[in-house]
Amino acid sequence: MGQITLNQVTKSFGDVEVITPLDLTIEDGEFAVFVGPSGCGKSTLLRLIAGLEDVTSGAINIDGKNATNVPPAKRGLAMVFQSYALYPHMSVRKNIAFPLRMAGLDKAEQNRRVEQAAAVLNLTDYLDRRPGQLSGGQRQRVAIGRAIVREPAAFLFDEPLSNLDAALRVGMRLEISELHKRLNTTMIYVTHDQVEAMTMADKIVVLNAGHIEQVGSPLDLYRAPRNLFVAGFIGSPKMNFIEGAEAEKLGAHTIGIRPEHIAVSESDGPWSGVVGVSEHLGSDTFFHVHDTGLADTIAVRADGEVGFRHGDRIHMTPRADVIHKFDAQGMRLP
Amino acid sequence: MATQHSRSAARLMMAPAVVLLLGWMLVPLTMTLFFSFKKYLPLRGDSLERGLDWVGFANYVRFIGSSSFWPSVQATLIIVGGVLVITVVLGVLLAILLDQPFWGQGIVRILVIAPFFVMPTVSALVWKNMFMDPVNGILAHLWRFFGAEPVSWLSDASVQSIIMIVSWQWLPFATLILLTAVQSLDSEQLEAAEMDGASPLMRFWHIILPHLSRAITIVILIQTIFLLSIFAEIFVTTGGSFGTRTLTYLIFQRVVDSQNIGLGSAGGVYAIILANIVAIFLMRIVGKNLDR
Lengths: 334, 292
What we know:
The complex is a heterodimer of chains A (334) and B (292).
Chain A: E1 4-13, E2 16-26, E3 31-35, H1 42-50, E4 57-62, E5 65-66, E6 77-80, H2 92-102, H3 107-120, H4 136-148, E7 154-158, H5 166-183, E8 186-191, H6 194-200, E9 203-208, E10 211-216, H7 218-223, H8 228-233, E11 240-243, H9 245-248, E12 254-257, E13 262-265, E14 271-280, E15 284-290, E16 298-303, E17 313-318, E18 324-326, E19 332-333
Parallel strand pairs in A: 3-8, 3-9, 6-7, 7-8
Antiparallel strand pairs in A: 1-2, 1-4, 4-5, 9-10, 11-12, 12-18, 13-17, 14-15, 14-17, 15-16, 18-19
Helix pairs in contact in A: 2-3, 2-4
Chain B: H1 3-36, E1 38-39, E2 53-54, H2 58-65, H3 69-99, H4 105-113, H5 120-131, H6 138-145, H7 153-156, H8 158-183, H9 187-195, H10 200-227, H11 232-236, H12 247-257, H13 261-290
Antiparallel strand pairs in B: 1-2
């Protein structure tokens, strides 16, 4: 069980309010991702849930019980840190067994659970090594192993993949998702990378300057961003925002259209511009189109084989049904 | 530029320093070895000009056969060991205390280092006259205040007093090195241990202390080198009496008080051997700790 509820939680450091009053419920077994730009308070929020920071006001409930003043170790949560925080002087086995040792389990039970976790994480061959002798991905797995053996009510991940290289990150992303499916335990995952958020989450919590901008499933956020911030944050490349006459035609202050919802052609389409940089990914090509008279640049995603070059004048057609409309305050219009 | 070329240039430029250092070490060492095999009693008219008699290992046999030799080795080891235990234990505790945020932290940290700047002779005299004096010392007043008989520290508890004085001098050094080590500990490790259910005491034992092991070894190594040769503290307080005659002090007495340079030199060679035995043990421990 691992339902976590935040009720009017705030956090201030001195005079600075980092978390403004915030309500949030994370259901049992859910994979929730906190995402936002750096400094938005997502890590602080995670540390509040973990108990490493005390809330300034408000209440945190875990499984319906008030845990606001419960010390971290008693909350039944396990955390994986950004730096992994492995104990460098202990072998992998001792690292993973440490929480069990602190809980006073007997040696045989400790060993059984360590072996089990090691088998799940492919660490069996490395149990007697020191963390210093492991690669980044292996260290990450040891950190996860140390969290798993406690059989916690929920896992907390604090940007766990940011120290890994790109290829390894994709691999670990899959492993963590796989682990979630297998254990079916609540996981809260903090990241600034919206790709990680989109691919892993059951529920994304978009944070900005200490408050929640929107909560929803990845596709909800993609299809119906509540405001300009979420619209710009979710999706890659970013949504194009167009103000002025073109937006007023649709009765909005700003309209947004995702690069993948614009069709390009040589001759026809209501918008036109000059191709600047084009990024060929093989499967897709991203064109950055200038001189459209709409915005500085319009990003367009086209098929990988579309062969426009730098300097070509092209025409673009937005898909009318997926144009997002926003009012002057940046809120979504129906 | 050719590596060969820059290498020989480097050797040439280092040469003066190397020669000076070697001279600084080798000349006294050779002279000590030379005198240790000679009969050299200046008051009996022996001098370098007239030539010294070769006596073989007689000085060595006499030095080690003296009834004060083994007690002096024992006194040396007790004082060095006692100071090491006190400075390391208190140093670790003080370092952790100073690492906590509190008001006036900067000033307190500077004050903690202060005793290290006081010359050994001065600090020993201050301790002797202002703290440990059985009539006028602060400790005597304190004892009398509680109705107890003042202790004449330097005669009744002489070794303990010397250990106390020297520890007071070296505690800042230990604290300083250990404090930097405490500060270099990744706070996420402590937080991880906290989440893993480790109590503050367990966190100290399983995380902080292992992290400090390297710094502790370095403190022990450096302090031992200096503590084996403490002299001023003994000279100005007990003058080597009441069981505080260390090996260094015994050598000093043989050379200066008994005016027997040959015998003192033989003692010096023993001191070199003792220091090397200690150094070998320490190096093995340090090597084991530094390899990680």
